[in-house]
Amino acid sequence: MQMSTKPFALITGASSGIGLELAKVFAEEGYDLLITAEKGIQEASRTIEQLGAKVDSYEVDLSEEAGVDELIAFADSLGRPIEVAVLNAGAGVGGDFARETNLEDEERIIRLNCLSTVRLAKWAVKNMLSDGKGRLMITSSVVSVMPAPLQLVYGATKAFVHSFAEGLREELRDTEITVTSLQPGATDTKFFEGPGLPGTKVDQMKKDDPAKVARQGFDALQNGDDHIVAGNIMNKIQIAVNKFLPERAKTMATRSYGEKAQ
Ligand SMILES: NC(=O)c1ccc[n+]([C@@H]2O[C@H](COP(=O)([O-])OP(=O)(O)OC[C@H]3O[C@@H](n4cnc5c(N)ncnc54)[C@H](OP(=O)(O)O)[C@@H]3O)[C@@H](O)[C@H]2O)c1
């Protein structure tokens, strides 16, 4: 069979939400894809193939170190250089850290949001370095630049990956590899089905369309931008205003999003 000559992109967390919409945009823009999720990836695969892409898919739990290594081995076995890696898989936990949340859930999202991202980025960037070029995008969040009481550990994982993306970009300045941090605000996905998140004010508010967030992320990646605050304009305004607010005021604002709606 003839090898496809299309560029090849990896997208994690592509079974739903922002990742699925990103995969659709990449397919429409002429990429073949390797997509992954913990479950439900076959259905996503069929949807994306209908847009003309050749799709490889892999179901794996990325909160486990062994799962990350399995995915790397699978990607290597395909024998196709990955030109774009979008490290998007992630999950959240809501609730009061001392009184409500479950430590196991929190440790799981640290492994998923942070450890799997670092492990996959190390592999992707080393391959990109030997190919001489590449683009990496990491989904962080608007909460990456402010403390997030009542989503405390989640917010800290997103601060970690945002800082990681910005720092890695600088280390790679003398190469043809770019790193982009995608910072969505509240987006209408099944993220809000996670532990402690249903019924919070942020869950009840009007959220952004994941297709819009994905298109903005794709464009920023193509431009080689360092970051993109995606979604509606209020997300950008919030981040801009935060720069001038005292720490306590920022924290009170983000806390209110995590409170239960009346
Ligand atoms: N929605 C928001 O308001 C928002 C705001 C800022 C940032 N983000 C970030 O955006 C990214 C995408 O989330 P989303 O909003 O699109 O939510 P989503 O619809 O729940 O998508 C999350 C994706 O990650 C995958 N995933 C979750 N746990 C996994 C695991 N243990 N192993 C492998 N894959 C796993 C899910 O696959 P399964 O379905 O198989 O679990 C799914 O494909 C996340 O990093 C999230 O933190 C979301």
Would you write up a description of this structure?
The protein has helices at 17-28, 41-49, 65-77, 103-131, 152-171, 201-204, 210-223, 233-242, 247-258; strands at residues 8-12, 32-37, 55-59, 84-87, 134-139, 177-184, 227-230. It is of the alpha/beta class and 262 residues long. A 7-stranded parallel beta sheet has the order 3-2-1-4-5-6-7, sandwiched between helices. Helix 1 (17-28) packs parallel to helix 2 (41-49). It is globular. The model has no long low-confidence stretch (mean pLDDT 96).
Report how far apart the termini are. Answer: 59 Å
Give every kind of bound small molecule, once each.
Answer: NADP nicotinamide-adenine-dinucleotide phosphate
Number of strands: 7
Quaternary structure? single chain
Strand content: 5-15%
User: Order of strands side by side in the largest beta sheet?
Assistant: 3-2-1-4-5-6-7
Helical proportion, percent range:
40-55%
Question: On the 0-100 scale, what is the average pLDDT?
Answer: 96
Poorly predicted ranges: none
Radius of gyration: 18 Å
Q: Key terms for this structure?
A:
alpha/beta, 7 strands, binds NADP nicotinamide-adenine-dinucleotide phosphate, 15% strand
Short description:
It is built from nine helices and seven strands, in the order E-H-E-H-E-H-E-H-E-H-E-H-H-E-H-H.
Layout of helices and strands:
Layout: E1 8-12, H1 17-28, E2 32-37, H2 41-49, E3 55-59, H3 65-77, E4 84-87, H4 103-131, E5 134-139, H5 152-171, E6 177-184, H6 201-204, H7 210-223, E7 227-230, H8 233-242, H9 247-258
Parallel strand pairs: 1-2, 1-4, 2-3, 4-5, 5-6, 6-7
